[in-house]
Design a protein that fits this description.
Layout lengths: L1 H20 L4 H5 L13 H7 L10 H5 L7 E6 L2 E6 L2 H10 L17 H7 L7 H14 L2 H6 L1 H20 L17 H17 L13 H9 L11 H10 L1 H7 L6 H21 L6 H11 L15 H6 L8 H4 L2 H33 L1 H15 L7 H4 L3 H13 L10
């Protein structure tokens, strides 16, 4: 019996070795520079991530700035998966905007339909392929136009006012309901505060509900949100990396064993919120002009537009570049509209939560370290807003210097380096 067990383990090891190394000549055969891989992790940057020696944000930045500095395109291996990296700003713009419709199929992180959570993850825009991806991408482009985003400004302003009140309580030493020790008056943990702001902003614009996490940071919505992204100990354990490895390296085995990339309960919690909100809107006719309303509008309009907009119909040059030709299929031919709504509203949360709170932290740090820049930002805001307490979308478009500060903070800190991966 012992011999059979050892033999089985050896066969499994050989199979794993073959699965990981079978594409190790991928970049070599194409004549593309690449980071040398090894079994089992692949290239050195992947190994460092798995061993938690670097963060995901540093995944490719070290390679791009060190080993492949000045190289426009190079590759590395995440386990056995060849991954292209675009290391040139102009080429990145060309691919991610004007030629985006030519890069349709990305790495699928999870497949299967064992649970409702699986079906939701499968409906993510990033998991769709071919014409299904094109159809959904075309639809989502219409959701995030400047005109549509303008309608959500009142929701964000309200959350901003709650943040302002929270900061005033901190400065005065008063408790704002979050249980934080205020003995050291004036000290702010920006990452945590940015997370509260971002969560409430996404809750109101993406899920159609209003929560004040500044007053009640332990609310059910936030608890499930932190569990979903792996920021709670109940989900983020030493085994969490194993879940990622299993889904990336052996997706079939992960499905067989029921090992999901995302925790099922919080995924279904948010799905239930979106589903109930959607059905309430459909029956009552109520509108908030939030993400749910805008996605529903685009889903209902899908298939009605027979051709690409003319140049004068786009609200900006960026939107013109981002638009694609009409796909071969209609959304309602092959895909469940309700699942697509839930999937992509949830994807909005994934894309916006930790990235935004981290971005706010970087901006605050850079402003604190450069007082002269901070003074110019304050001066511009004062000049644009004057004595008014009302913030309008059009006013935000006038804050050119602040926009440059935000963009430079992201560039300087390599915040979006991971976005260059294909």
């Amino acid at each position: 019996m012992l011999f059979e067990i050892i033999l089985l383990l050896c066969l499994l090891l050989l199979w794993a070795y073959y699965a990981v190394t079978k594409q190790f000549n991928y970049f070599k055969d194409k004549g593309v520079p690449f980071a040398k891989p090894s079994f089992p992790f692949g290239s050195r940057n992947t190994k460092k991530i798995i061993l938690q020696q670097i963060t995901f944000n540093k995944d490719i930045s070290d390679l791009a700035e060190d080993e492949f500095k000045g190289v426009k395109v190079f590759g590395y291996f995440a386990f056995g998966q060849p991954t292209w990296v675009i290391n040139d700003e102009e080429l990145t713009k060309q691919i991610l905007i004007k030629d985006f419709d030519h890069f349709v199929d990305r790495r699928v992180l999870q497949e299967g339909s064992n649970t409702k959570a699986d079906a939701i993850v499968n409906g993510f825009l990033t998991n769709l392929k071919g014409d299904e991806w094109k159809a959904m991408r075309t639809m989502m482009t219409g959701v995030f136009t400047s005109g549509k985003l303008k309608m959500m400004t009142p929701h964000l302003v309200k959350v901003g006012e709650q943040l302002e009140e929270h900061i005033e309580n901190i400065l005065s030493g008063k408790s704002s309901g979050d249980g934080v020790d205020r003995s050291n008056v004036g000290v702010v943990e920006v990452k945590s505060m940015g997370g509260l702001f971002t969560l409430d902003a996404i809750a109101t614009t993406g899920f159609g509900i209003e929560v004040n996490s500044f007053l009640d940071p332990n609310n059910r919505f936030r608890d499930n949100a932190l569990t979903l992204i792996g920021s709670k100990k109940s989900w983020k354990s030493k085994l969490s990396m194993l879940r990622i490895v299993m889904n990336l390296l052996f997706p079939g085995l992960a499905r067989l064993l029921g090992i999901s990339l995302f925790p099922q309960k919080p995924t279904e919690f948010f799905a239930d919120i979106i589903e109930r909100t959607y059905r309430h809107r459909m029956s009552s006719g109520e509108r908030r002009n939030d993400i749910i309303d805008l996605i529903v509008d685009e889903l209902n309009a899908a298939g009605k537009l027979k051709k690409r907009k003319s140049a004068e119909e786009f609200e900006s040059e960026f939107e013109k570049d981002a638009a694609m030709e009409k796909p071969e299929i209609e959304i309602d031919q092959k895909m469940d509209k309700e699942i697509l709504l839930i999937s992509n509203a949830l994807l909005f949360f994934f894309a916006g939560f930790d990235t935004t709170s981290t971005g706010l932290t970087m901006i605050a740090h850079n402003l604190a370290m450069h007082q002269d820049v901070q003074d110019k930002v304050v001066e511009e805001i004062t000049d644009v807003l004057g004595d008014t307490d009302k913030i309008r979308f059009d006013d935000l478009q006038k804050l050119k210097y602040m926009d440059m500060v935000i963009s430079e903070s992201f560039r300087f800190d390599n915040f979006f380096a991971v976005m260059n991966q294909l």
